[in-house]
Design a protein that fits this description.
Layout (H helix, E strand, L loop, with lengths): L2 E8 L4 H21 L6 E7 L2 E7 L8 E9 L4 H11 L8 E5 L3 E10 L4 H14 L25 E9 L6 E2 L3 E2 L2 E2 L3 E3 L8 E3 L3 H10 L6 H18 L2 E3 L3 H8 L6 E6 L9 H12 L2 E5 L5 E9 L8 H26 L9 H7 L6 H12 L2 E3 L3 E2 H19 L14 H14 L7 H5 L6 H9 L4 H9 L14 H20 L13 H14 L6 H16 L5 H9 L1 H22 L4 H10 L6 H15 L2 H24 L10 H7 L2 H22 L3 H9 L2 H10 L7 H18 L11
Antiparallel strand pairs: 1-3, 1-7, 2-3, 4-6, 5-6, 7-8, 9-10, 11-12, 13-15, 14-16, 15-16, 17-18
Helix pairs in contact: 1-3, 5-6, 7-8, 9-10, 11-12, 11-16, 12-15, 12-16, 14-15, 15-16, 16-17, 16-18, 16-20, 17-20, 18-20, 20-21, 21-22, 22-26, 23-27, 23-28, 25-26, 25-27, 25-28
Length: 755
């Protein structure tokens, strides 16, 4: 079957836009083809810095013929209805319509509309110009003389040519004829800007790709990435070095070149005194280059790798030298920033008030920067105060969290090792400095280094290792795969920072909505969950939120009158409940991503116990999941569902709560059914045993107690008639089933479990 080849050739397309643009092109064209009944076998889009390309395989030559019956008015209907029907159906007279008879509705007109399938070439000629004119570029421009009138085509950069061919493999493909703002479609493309800028005639995709390769253009971005990565690793290995791999940079660089050539440059060893992360940020941000490290020691090397877009006649010496000059200049700037940040600020006398308020030591450079941040009144959020005020809030919260964590800090890997006083002193010290690197020269130039530079500077001024680590790690984890701090000082500070953020934005009603989350609150909540769960920390989140929520509501509404403020403060409980529900939703997402069932979270939360102890919830969910994988668990769930369905039906007749209360055991004895008696005895033993196990947080024991009920439940439903003709027996047996329902609630709300 025929294939379509489309190429849109332009000036440079920004690397960050290329992937999405290629996928947009594919989706827009293929969706339009399918709407016309033109189904294809496969499609793939490509992007280079100068072109978007699309190959669609297995298209038919024309679409399917369409036969449609359009029902019209009854025979004898008013003339206006008749004329409307003829116009809508495309008929000139009623002679072209058919009359059908209906015994109830009488005779009516029907138009039989037969449309031949559209030629695929004609469809493409309609689709592609429309796609080009409405293409969803994030940013676009007009150019040329027509741009002054505002009527010309908008494209990301000036569009130069359009290649569009269609045809079968065994035939000479034809150019799909159309024109967009004076650009006429053809079968011509162009090679590399410098190596092969001349026109290349193309027939179909099979000769398009090799023709471009000969003209020094690698069409596939993934292949360009592979070339860059392999060549970079090889060059590094030859020098006894290792590439510091960077997927984001690799993706960007592959979008900057059509014919990648990797070269190695160098800089003076004296620059290695700058923190390695700063060197990497400098070289990455300014020159889009990779850094290297010593293969033996892992230390950063004074080498870097750049990716050129051509094969230079001198082997790349001039290109490398040019990059080295720029890198040297940027590293000189970084060295200046680093030296400046380690020195004293010139206005120390003006910082004494802030230093005293925050408990800072103005003899230390990092303390000076924190005092400066407070003195300047740098705003965190208009309704949530300054960074200095925020640090004070975090300090109060971290103090409480530290006290709660302290008894648990020797569990598992979470170990501090020092005295209680030292532990709390380090938490307090870390909080004072967590935002201190924000006004530093280095972070001002490279914001992505916040926290990391704070840790470096803290180490240089002699802070304890746990304090320095907390300054960096209070931002972590930044995502589902990021490192989770394990030092108790870092945990306390990171939790306080994230909880302050969440409480603050909940207090001012700035919650995530739909896909919008400008303050990364979902990430913050997930960070809290991972800090708690992965470190085995037991915290009652709602209690931690209570005090800061009220304080922030009051602070965010300083001009509210007393009655209004009382109303706002009384709403804090509702806000805390809403925020806790947000945590539960994030927990469900995390557990689902880990392969767990989110309905089990609902079942555990539905039971109502420990809903703000996130670690407890995960333990209960895990125990419930293991139980439901056993035959006992599956059978008990089935028995519960059957009991719940019966009770639901009978409660509609007798009323809600009609079967609450104690079971009449004498009546069971009189009925003489062994299976009924066995269930009653089993529930009498299992219910308190499960509750006692839950109280001790022995969830496996609770499940085991419930598992003992399985044989009795199965036998009961096999042998006992619940809705007995005797009203007393019926009510007693329904009470027994109600006891079964209540017994399972000791561990979870089984009614929320799917299946």
């Amino acid at each position: 079957m025929p294939d379509l080849l489309l190429e849109l050739f332009s000036e440079e397309i920004p690397a960050r836009m290329q992937r999405k643009a290629a996928e947009d092109l594919k989706k827009l064209v293929t969706d339009a083809l399918v709407e016309r009944g033109l189904v294809y076998e496969g499609a793939k889009a490509f992007a280079t810095p100068r072109r978007l390309a699309l190959h669609i395989a297995g298209l038919p030559v024309r679409g399917r013929d369409v036969r449609e019956e359009r029902k019209g008015p009854r025979v004898g209907a008013p003339e206006a209805a008749i004329q409307g029907f003829l116009k809508a159906a495309g008929l000139t007279s009623l002679d072209q319509a058919t009359i059908i008879s209906d015994p109830k509705k009488g005779d009516s007109y029907v138009a039989i509309i037969e449309k031949p399938g559209q030629e695929t070439v004609a469809a493409i000629a309609e689709i592609v110009p429309a796609v080009i004119r409405s293409f969803p570029w994030p940013k676009s421009m007009r150019w040329g003389a027509a741009s002054a009138a505002g009527a010309s085509l908008r494209w990301v950069r000036p569009l130069h040519s359009i290649l569009c061919t269609f045809g079968a493999e065994t035939e000479e493909p034809e150019v799909v004829p159309f024109e967009v703002d004076g650009i006429v479609s053809g079968n011509i493309t162009y090679g590399h800007r410098f190596h092969a800028p001349g026109a290349i005639t193309v027939k179909r995709f099979d000769d398009y790709v090799p023709s471009l390769e000969k003209a020094k253009v690698v069409l596939d971005a993934d292949r360009r990435k592979e070339i860059i990565l392999n060549d970079a690793r090889t060059l590094a290995f030859a020098q006894g070095l290792e590439l510091v791999e960077d997927e984001g940079l690799l993706e960007e660089v592959a979008g900057l070149v059509e014919w990648p050539v990797v070269l190695m440059g160098a800089f003076e060893e004296r620059f290695l005194e700058i923190p390695g992360e700063a060197i990497r940020a400098t070289i990455r941000a300014n020159q889009k280059c990779f850094v290297l490290r010593d293969a033996a020691t892992g230390a950063l090397a004074n080498r870097f790798l750049l990716t050129a877009n051509l094969v230079a006649s001198d082997g790349g010496k001039v290109i490398t030298a040019g990059n080295e000059r720029v890198v040297r200049a940027r590293l000189s700037d970084a060295a200046y920033f680093f030296a400046t940040d380690k020195g004293d600020l010139p206005d120390l006398d003006t910082l004494k008030e802030s230093a005293e308020k925050l408990g800072l030591d103005l003899a230390k450079p990092l303390d000076q920067r924190m005092a400066k941040l407070d003195k300047l009144g740098v705003v965190f959020h208009a309704k949530l105060g300054t960074q200095g005020e925020r640090v004070q809030r975090i300090a109060a919260l971290a103090r409480v969290i530290g006290e709660l964590i302290e008894p648990q800090k020797r569990v598992g890997e979470m170990h501090f090792g020092g005295s209680s006083a030292e532990y709390h002193n380090q938490i307090a010290r870390a909080v004072r400095l967590i935002k201190a690197d924000l006004p530093t020269e280095m972070v001002g130039e490279f914001p992505e280094l916040q926290g990391l530079m704070g840790r470096k500077y803290a180490g240089l001024q002699g802070e304890k290792p746990s304090v320095a680590a907390a300054i960096e790690e209070h931002y972590k984890p930044l995502g589902p795969s990021d490192h989770v701090p394990t030092d108790p000082v870092s945990i306390a500070v990171a939790l306080a920072d994230k909880l302050d953020t969440l409480v603050g934005f909940w207090a001012i009603e700035e919650k995530p909505t739909g896909s919008k989350d400008p303050y990364a609150l979902r990430r913050a909540a997930l960070g809290v969950i991972r800090l708690v769960v992965e470190n085995g920390v037991r915290l009652q989140i709602s209690r931690l939120l209570n005090m800061p929520m009220k304080e922030m509501i009051a602070a965010a509404n300083p001009y509210a009158d007393d009655d209004r403020l009382i109303e706002l403060l009384s709403a804090s409980e509702a806000k805390i409940a809403d925020l806790l529900s947000f945590f539960h939703d994030r927990l469900k997402v995390m557990l689902r991503d880990q392969g767990a069932r989110h309905d089990l979270v609902d079942a555990v939360l539905g039971e109502g116990g420990g809903s703000d102890d996130l670690l407890l919830i995960t333990h209960r969910v895990a125990a419930l999941a293991r139980f439901l994988e056993t035959q006992d668990g599956k059978s008990l769930l089935a028995g519960y569902k059957r009991a719940a369905n019966i009770l639901k039906a009978e409660e509609k007749k007798d009323g809600e709560g009609a079967f609450d209360g104690a079971v009449d055991y004498l009546l069971i004895e009189q009925a003489g059914l062994i299976e009924e008696k066995a269930l009653a005895v089993g529930l009498h033993k299992a219910t308190p045993a499960a509750s006692a196990a839950v109280a001790k947080e022995d969830y496996e024991g609770a499940m085991a107690a419930l598992a003992e009920l399985r044989p009795a439940v199965d036998a009961f439903f096999d042998q006992v008639t619940v809705n007995d003709p005797d009203p007393a027996l019926r009510i007693n047996r329904l009470k027994l089933l109600n006891q079964l329902r209540e017994a399972t609630r000791a561990v979870a709300d089984f009614g929320r479990i799917a299946g």
